[in-house]
Amino acid sequence: MFYRPSEGHGLPHNPFNAIVTPRPIGWISTRGADGQDNLAPYSFFNACAYVPPQVMFCSTSAKEDRGDTKDSVAHIRETGVFCVNIVEYAMRDAMNVTSGQYRKEVDEFVEAGLEKAECDTIACARVAAAPANLECRMTQIVKLEGAANFAVFGEVTGIHMRDDCMKDGMFDVLSFNPLSRLGYRDYAVVRETFSLKRPGE
Length: 201
Hints:
The chain has a seven-stranded antiparallel beta sheet with strand order 3-2-6-9-10-5-4, with helices on one face. Strands 1-13-14 form a three-stranded antiparallel beta sheet, with no helix packed on it. Helices cover 12% and strands 35% of the residues. It is globular and about 50 Å long. It contains four helices and 14 strands. It has one domain (23-189): Pnp Oxidase, Chain A (Roll). GO terms for molecular function: FMN binding; oxidoreductase activity, acting on the CH-NH group of donors, NAD or NADP as acceptor.
């Protein structure tokens, strides 16, 4: 099968998300200038540089009470900071609760029953029990093609790693089983890893 996205695919559901998989989930926490906390998952997310460490996520829809975007981007525009909370398999249901379309005054930490902790380098809440948290200062917001598509880039200014996830001096993903996004309503969990040496190593 071949199709041009501009002409449609003719299938019951859009296959694009199912092709580009698995995708890590950026569970983004933000705090507005008014002090309102927000937490939402984004599957267009990844690390994008080592020195200095940087991450990015994309928001691709809008809410009536936020104009051209959603709560996360609106908060980051106001404060210039955000936190990425890593999603473990055990937190899948809480993460799913925070994916709901809530009004801007709703605190998703409360909706999902998640304990907050304060970040160390930025004024923002983080998921206290997450395996890891990346505190970030926004470096740029890039408007992408499409009505509500924004890419947010941030420099990581502080990193929290849960003590039980450290094994022999390494951050061990099998100790918490990270969740990833597939297409449609599907997710995957990392339960097995293997290593490969690069040519010349």
